[in-house]
Amino acid sequence: MAIRENMTIETTIMAKYKTAFQIAAVIALLIHYEYAFGDFVVDFHRIGMGLLYIALFTTLWSGADYFYKFFRKVLSP
Known about the structure:
two-stranded antiparallel ribbon
């Protein structure tokens, strides 16, 4: 719809953060296992799930921002 109206909606920094969190989450979830480095244990599944929830929040925020900007441009005289 925006293209038909010759409108451009710029990419926001939040959308770039969303993409970065999604990529990091997928990488961590692909690794998946717990790794122990001495007494220090890294659980990549938990890290990936945490990053995925952050990506979900930033996706919702970014999407709402895009809709707001789109409708503001559509409704402005």
